[in-house]
């Protein structure tokens, strides 16, 4: 299947080096990539208010499985990529559902962060389903003592599995 | 018919309904019948474990000891109060994991698979069958006697009615019926004993009034060395009194099976909390009632009847009515678990292991039901006929089971190199020591409680025997490591974990484990 995917900022070797620098006692084996689904929506915001005008672009990503929203500063650089079924996670919501969630999330964020009471006008300019690559890494202390972590291949953030 | 008997009959009917409700679920597979599909939640695990552990002794023998010895008896309560918590904390998670990985359905089968030895299963089955039967006979006898004295029914009929109900719901509903009736019975026990304790304390002027009156009767009642300081300086006896219940439950197959049936390892944490709350409310109360008996019943001839006599003499009708059900709940909740375990060992560890290895699921469920029925019917006959030789075994039952199985169960998950020779030595020597120590009353000579002696010998035997055995195979070593659970991460990695991506990590983890598309 062909998907829209972000390009890894951290390659296999870089991930291994970074982790082994943090923890020299352990050997790290960077196994493979898993692609995680998100939906991104970009809006133009326009609030003509004499005291508190708001104008510009605002973006929101919705986690395709957990259905949680987050503010997005930039639209990701995406590339078409062919992956097999065992390498990507299918989203659990449609683009329409995600759009509804994104707008709810943005209205809520704007009203609480910008301290405004009236709802600004949001005009959708871009929407996309995309996949972010995550590395699956095995840490081997001394066999059979091992553990797994996942590393966000774009930001380099990691979390145990 | 008195109000107590009416409440008791209603109570029996509730138990029957619970048993019959689970009969369909129990018929699904041997796993369902023998272990409830390993889906028992924390509250039921905790409370059924406690009501199973605490037998009729809590309403009859325990208060009698408190009545005779004063505050020394509280050492047993301390053991009881901590026993469930220690049991869950030490064995809970690891035994749950290992039993599932090994695919063991009975605590004896678990030992065979962990120690890779049919001899362990044979010896384990023999010890467990003999002493579990002895234990269940004692419970049936207690059930009959309690019912006879509290209702006035003829002893034989009391045994047939009381035990008959247990057999019906256990045969029909299997393990799930046992744990759910035990859960219900734990609540009845708690309600019964707390009501009696509150009224009792009001009668003696609270805890301060109780101690004041005890010191006026005999100051030695307030000492931990027993009445007339009979155990003065004997730390082995004092320690053994607490240890027997604090750690002894880890050696009882019908109790440790609760670890194997838990829903998951996460159940342990909440179950421990439930156990802690329940035990602090329940464990001390029967002993405190024994102390109250010293003051309110100075001429009582049978100390075992201290709680029933208090209830019927001093307390309002409703509390006395509750008592019969509470006493029977304590006895029945232990009996059904032992009966279930005896049936499991007969069907799984004897029939399927040595007679018909390829028995189908349906056949195994039928054999399990017949085994429980057979064990129950033999129990009724023995409780009625009371052959003296059989009842000689009863006094050893708890201690022998505890001393035979505790070290093997703990070593199974904490000592990687533990092997079959070490375990056989430990089981046999621990059990035999308890029997000899009790039979020849070596406690009075050595000042060491039989349980403590059995425990020490059992550990020494394991250490001596183990070097002569074959080390565990590589697959078992791997199982041992897996049973330890997830390993902690290296410090520096743990420090830099980014919690922002934890929802994604959870999904990715499920995805790579199942290797199927994940849908939230």
Automatic annotation (TrEMBL), chain A:
It comes from the Bacteria. This is Uncharacterized protein. It comes from Lentibacillus populi.
From TrEMBL, chain B:
GO terms for biological process: proline transport. It is found in: Cell membrane. The keyword Kinase does not apply. GO terms for cellular component: plasma membrane. The keyword Transmembrane helix applies. It is a multi-pass membrane protein. PROSITE patterns: NA_SOLUT_SYMP_3. One of its GO terms (molecular function) is proline:sodium symporter activity. InterPro entries: Na/Glc_symporter_sf (IPR038377), Na/Pro_symporter (IPR011851), Na/solute_symporter (IPR001734), Sodium:Solute_Symporter (IPR050277). The chain crosses the membrane at residues 6-23, 44-65, 71-91, 118-137, 157-180, 187-209, 229-252, 273-297, 309-331, 366-387, 393-414, 421-440, 446-468. Keywords: Amino-acid transport, Cell membrane, Ion transport, Membrane, Sodium, Sodium transport, Symport, Transmembrane, Transmembrane helix, Transport. It catalyses: L-proline(in) + Na(+)(in) = L-proline(out) + Na(+)(out). Belongs to the sodium:solute symporter (SSF) (TC 2.A.21) family. NCBIfam families: sss. Catalyzes the sodium-dependent uptake of extracellular L-proline. This is Sodium/proline symporter. It comes from Lentibacillus populi.
């Amino acid at each position: 299947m062909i998907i829209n995917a972000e390009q890894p900022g951290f390659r296999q070797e870089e991930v291994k080096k970074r982790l082994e620098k943090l923890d020299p006692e352990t050997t790290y084996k960077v196994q493979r990539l898993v692609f995680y689904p998100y939906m991104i929506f970009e809006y133009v915001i326009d609030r003509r208010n004499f005291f508190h005008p708001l104008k510009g672009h605002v973006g929101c990503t919705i986690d395709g499985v957990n259905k949680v929203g987050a503010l997005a500063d930039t639209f990701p650089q995406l590339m078409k990529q062919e992956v097999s079924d065992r390498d990507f996670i299918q989203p659990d919501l449609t683009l329409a559902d995600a759009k509804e969630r994104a707008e709810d999330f943005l209205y809520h964020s704007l009203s609480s962060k910008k301290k405004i009471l009236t709802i600004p006008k949001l005009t959708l300019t871009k929407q996309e389903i995309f996949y972010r690559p995550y590395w699956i890494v095995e840490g081997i202390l001394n066999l059979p003592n091992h553990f797994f972590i996942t590393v966000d291949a774009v930001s380099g953030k990691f979390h145990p599995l | 018919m008195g109000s107590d008997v009416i409440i008791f009959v209603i109570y029996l009917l509730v138990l029957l309904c619970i048993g019959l409700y689970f009969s369909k679920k129990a018929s699904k597979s041997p796993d369902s019948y023998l272990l409830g599909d390993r889906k028992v939640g924390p509250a039921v695990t905790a409370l059924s474990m406690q009501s199973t552990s605490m037998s009729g002794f809590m309403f009859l023998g325990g208060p009698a000891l408190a009545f005779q010895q004063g505050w020394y008896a509280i050492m047993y309560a301390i053991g009881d109060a901590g026993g469930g918590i220690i049991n869950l904390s030490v064995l809970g998670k690891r035994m749950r994991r290992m039993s599932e990985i090994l695919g063991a359905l009975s605590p004896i089968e678990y030992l065979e698979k962990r120690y890779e030895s049919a001899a362990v299963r044979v010896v384990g089955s023999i010890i467990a069958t003999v002493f579990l039967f002895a234990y269940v006979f004692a419970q049936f006898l207690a059930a009959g006697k309690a019912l006879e004295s509290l209702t006035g029914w003829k002893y034989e009929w009391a045994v047939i009615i009381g035990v008959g109900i247990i057999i019906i719901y256990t045969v029909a509903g299997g393990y799930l019926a046992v744990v759910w009736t035990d859960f219900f019975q734990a609540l009845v026990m708690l309600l019964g004993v707390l009501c009696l304790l509150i009224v009792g304390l009001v009668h003696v002027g609270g805890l301060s009034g109780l101690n004041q009156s005890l010191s006026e009767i005999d100051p030695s009642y307030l000492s931990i060395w027993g009445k007339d300081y009979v155990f003065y300086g004997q730390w082995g006896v004092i320690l053994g009194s607490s240890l027997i219940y604090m750690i002894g439950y880890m050696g009882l197959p019908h109790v440790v099976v609760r670890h194997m049936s838990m829903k998951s390892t996460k159940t342990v944490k909440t179950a421990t909390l439930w156990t802690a709350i329940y035990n602090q409310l329940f464990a001390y109360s029967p002993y405190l009632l024994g102390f109250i008996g010293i003051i309110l019943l100075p001429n009582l001839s049978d100390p075992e009847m201290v709680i029933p006599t208090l209830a019927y003499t001093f307390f309002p009708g409703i509390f006395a009515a509750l008592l019969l059900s509470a006493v029977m709940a304590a006895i029945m909740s232990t009996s059904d678990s032992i009966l279930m375990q005896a049936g499991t060992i007969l069907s799984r560890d004897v029939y399927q292991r040595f007679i018909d290895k390829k028995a189908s699921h349906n056949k195994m469920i039928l054999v399990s039901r017949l085994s429980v029925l057979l064990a129950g019917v033999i129990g009724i006959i023995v409780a009625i006929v009371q052959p003296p030789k059989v009842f000689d075994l009863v006094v050893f039952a708890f201690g022998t089971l505890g001393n035979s199985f505790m070290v093997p169960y703990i070593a199974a998950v904490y000592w990687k190199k533990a092997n079959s020779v070490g375990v056989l030595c430990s089981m046999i020597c621990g059990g035999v020591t308890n029997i000899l120590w009790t039979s020849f009353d070596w406690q009075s000579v050595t000042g060491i409680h039989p349980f403590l002696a059995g425990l020490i010998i059992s550990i020494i035997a394991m250490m001596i025997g183990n070097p002569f055995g074959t080390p565990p195979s590589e697959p078992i070593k791997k199982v041992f490591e897996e049973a330890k659970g997830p390993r902690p991460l290296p410090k520096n990695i743990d420090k830099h974990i980014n919690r922002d991506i934890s929802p994604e990590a959870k999904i990715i983890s499920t995805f790579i484990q199942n290797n199927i598309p994940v849908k939230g």
